[in-house]
Design brief:
30% helix; single chain; binds magnesium ion; binds adenosine-5'-triphosphate; 2 domains; 4-stranded antiparallel β-sheet
Amino acid sequence: MSTPALLELCNVARDYPVGPTPLFGRRATLRALDGIDLKVPAGSIFGVVGESGSGKSTLARIVMALDRPTAGNVLFDGDDLFLLPPAALAARRRDFQMVFQDPYGSLDPRSRIGRTVAEPLHVVPDALRGAERAALVGEALESVGLKAADAARFPHEFSGGQRQRIAIARALITRPKLVVADEAVSALDLSVQAQVLNLLRSLRDRHGITVLFITHNLAVIDCVADHVAVMYRGRVVETGPAQAVFARPFHPYTQLLIAAEPSLERIGRGLRRTPSAPPSAQIEGGGCAFLARCPLASGRCAAEAPALRALEPGRASACHHAEALTEGASSLHFPT
Ligand SMILES: Nc1ncnc2c1ncn2[C@@H]1O[C@H](COP(=O)(O)OP(=O)(O)OP(=O)(O)O)[C@@H](O)[C@H]1O
Ligand SMILES: [Mg+2]
């Protein structure tokens, strides 16, 4: 990746307290993120994929500075977000915006669209006058393929796909550098998913916006992303250019995901959701988190957690046996 990184996560961890508070000692913690290192190149669509509970939304909340990491640093456009004084962080917020999963729940049914779309402008320091606000709202609505006049309408007058466009317009109104989309198309019909993905791509092409695109659906990542990070139980297990990773995965878990999603050219068929391991598995330290499901597992994997390591330019895998995959080992056989 020669393009400079807009967003960089360095060794980010997030622990959540779980279970009852004991009379003596400390509450157990669940490590939702563990040693995350990521570089998101400016102007890219960067996909994050992983099964339910792998830590994707936790990552999104930390990137949006809605939650603090337990350890590590988040560098956004040169600033360490969690070292900024509160006023400086507040001023930075206009540069990163989020699009949520549910286009129904995320729009206030009683507010006109114009008011909803203008809502993030409260982080912009200079109070904008009515006409300036209306012009920005109109511009944002037009940039997602709606009309400026739609500002006067209410959410129930729009389809699911149009509502997600409205949610994207709201994210764009502060002219952010980064948009974080957490499962932004998962609730939409297949054809509408394709339209919203095309819209994100065209926004990137027209305005150079960087998109952190989070989903459990590998096919969606394959359609939209330039780069991908594959997460498993709070860790990044593989990262690289999306096409290269899908053509020749360097981690057994990525292979498993691809095997579970046979028709990558079709959007919308979610990963077969394998049941997540109980949280206690994430509490324990030790070896590789993928050990129990891995056909390549060895004694070393039980003893030592593999670090994410570079294997080819721009590509990294957290597997002790990744060389077996880079050398073109045939498809692995996973226990059913
Ligand atoms: N506030 C919290 N308190 C305690 N545990 C939490 C909290 N938020 C998340 N977790 C736990 O952290 C882990 C990661 O959760 P997260 O929501 O980030 O996963 P996800 O990959 O987004 O899953 P999904 O695909 O279902 O949205 C899960 O085990 C979850 O139960
Ligand atoms: Mg989530």
